[in-house]
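Hey,
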Amino acid sequence: CKDVVNPNMSRRVVNPRIILLDCPLEYKKGESQTNLEFTKDMDFEQALRMEEAYIQQMCKDIIKMKPTVVCTEKGVSDYAQHFLIKAGISVLRRLRKMDNNRIARAVGATIINDPSDLKEEYVGKNCGLFEIRKIGDEFFTYFDQCKEPKACTILLRGAGKDVLNEIERNLQDAMHVARQLHMDPRVLPGGGATEMAVAQALIRKAKTIKTTQQRPFEALAAAFEVIPRTLMENCGCKIIRVMTELRAKHAEGKEPYWGVNGNTGEIEDMRALAVLQPISVKMQTLKTAIESSCMLLRIDDIVSGLTNKQQ
């Protein structure tokens, strides 16, 4: 939330010309200890005039580009405000670096470190409306009607802080799902259908192994069946009956899309219910679970790695 630095500046500009800076519009202070030695009466006034000339030159470099809005990540002195107000320029100061980058992507501007380096192509001209609106007790700056913006802001409003935090978490989850689908558009059926299909495939694989090596396959298959069983418990349905029906559907390998309907507790085709999830999320979940199990087994082996005699 930002407001213009001076109330005499315009809070609404149509088709603004926007300049973005990451330097202060005030006299640059020394990075370390700075000493000035005055030997004459006029030395102090001369130092002040040098500061004013420095600020005035910066303002001239900005004004010659004919901007209507200037945003900077640093401060703006009163002397600089005087020249910018006379030129009809609205100024926002002390923007966060992240916000400045987003404004640049939205309005097509380039962030400049020194006003003397300004060129016409660095000025943002893709914004249709610059406006500052008051919502509650806060002022918010809007860059609206942008042409082909590469960044945007979603404003969330809620009755209380807890409600607002919950809305933000839900929105963040939805944005992450959309990002994953954009990166990898493949999806899998939900409702425990994927886990049950993998479990049945592991059971079929275990039956082809005659040695004790089939035990890990059977254990992993039983672990996968926990997900659909948990969904059934949450629904309050008859777990044994529904689980048997789901196993029968998947046993033949022809109905891998059947899972548990979370509302009714019955087994249904997840494609018909449009209950789908990104494949990248599911793959990462399975990899993490299996790697965690292997790590725990390794730890147990190390702890109990003594022979009976040594124990």
